[in-house]
Amino acid sequence: MSDQTVANSSGSRLVSSWGAATRSWLPAVILLLATIVIWEAVVRIFAISAFIIPAPSEIARSLVAQWGTLMQATLVTAGEILFGFLVSVVVGIAIALVIVRFDWLGRALYPLVVLFQNVPKVALAPIFILWFGYGLAPKIGLILVIAFFPVTLSMLAGMQSVDRSLLSLMNSVGASPTQILFRIRVPHSLPNLMAGTKIAATLSVIGAIVGEFAGASDGLGYVIQFASTQLDTALVFAALLLVSVLGIAFYYAAEILERIVVPWAPKFSQS
User: Fold this and answer.
1) CATH number of 53-269: 1.10.3720.10, 3.40.50.300, 1.10.3080.10, 1.10.8.60?
2) How far is Cα 24 from Cα 18, in angstroms, rounded to an integer?
3) Which residues contact 247 (CB under 8 A, 6 or more apart)?
4) How many whole angstroms separate alpha carbon 239 and alpha carbon 190?
5) Contact assessment for residue 220 and residue 227, using Cβ atoms and an 8 Å cutoff
6) Which residues of 186-212 are buried (b: 16+ CB within 10 A; e: fewer)?
7) 59-105 pLDDT, tens per residue?
8) Which residue has the higher pLDDT, 265 or 150?
9) Residue 171 contacts by C-beta under 8 Å, 6 or more apart in sequence?
10) Where do transmembrane segments lie in this chain (predicted)?
11) Could you give the 3-state DSSP secondary structure of residue 259?
């Protein structure tokens, strides 16, 4: 095959990939732009006060004017989200492994995990502040209690859906429960686990903001609260926009990781 043919083939794949990406994102971009235009028009036509609903142009001006402060707050919140997310994934995996490996402990632990998940997490924030102070620890703790559950539940679903005939085969050749766990159940659970981490990534953002609401001196949650006390609604919306960007970024980072770790797993198709 000639170099020209290889180059043409590579160029065709690139164009095809770019076309697929465009078809995937274009509807969302069009909808977003239409929403912004309608929002701006409604605020202008009906003369809605910026105190109630600021126009997108006002939010953009506030974003530019407070760029340094908002970027500093974004970095603080992003660090909390990343650390809390990683802790949540590790703890969620550990709990799932314990429940499956030790049957008696699993029967005792699983109901407690479900019961704990029903506790309102906002109510835990002041308790964590009381226990751990106003530093990083209460935010990480709150992210952990919010985000570990989908990781545990997803991995459990994957490990418990293994084909029974495969388990019988492993038992017939003398495999120990630990060998079956790590050679059969864990690999089988990876697609479920990665789906759970995507949910945990978005929940981690919520946990970080709730933790900052409860008590913080920096971060996007603190900026939102401070702007609310100053009746600066445009700054509130600007901070919320950056929170949304963080959520999207962490979600797609988890999705990219999923494509690397379990490329064979089924993906959501927009076609």
Assistant:
1) 1.10.3720.10
2) 10
3) 201, 202, 205
4) 35
5) no
6) bebbbbbbbbbbbbbbbbbbbbbbbbb
7) 999 999 999 999 999 999 999 999 999 999 999 999 999 988 888 88
8) 150
9) 180
10) 25-53, 73-100, 112-134, 140-159, 193-214, 234-254
11) helix
Report domain extents, the chain: 1-47, 53-269
* pTM greater than the 0.85 cutoff: no
DSSP the chain: --HHHHHHHHHHHHHHHHHHHHHHHHHHHHHHHHHHHHHHHHHHHTT--TTTS--HHHHHHHHHHTHHHHHHHHHHHHHHHHHHHHHHHHHHHHHHHHHHH-HHHHHHHHHHHHHHHTS-HHHHHHHHHHHHTTSHHHHHHHHHHHHHHHHHHHHHHHHTTS-HHHHHHHHHTT--HHHHIIIIIHHHHHHHHHHHHHHHHHHHHHHHHHHHHHS-SSSHHHHHHHHHHTT-HHHHHHHHHHHHHHHHHHHHHHHHHHHHH-TTS------
pLDDT digits (tens, 9 = 90+) for 103-136: 888 888 888 888 877 888 788 888 888 888 888 8
Task: Please give the single-letter amino acid code of residue 91.
Answer: V
Query: Following CA atoms 45, 49, 55, 57 in sequence, which dihedral angle do they give, to the nearest 10 degrees?
Result: 110
Place of tokens 């992210």: 143
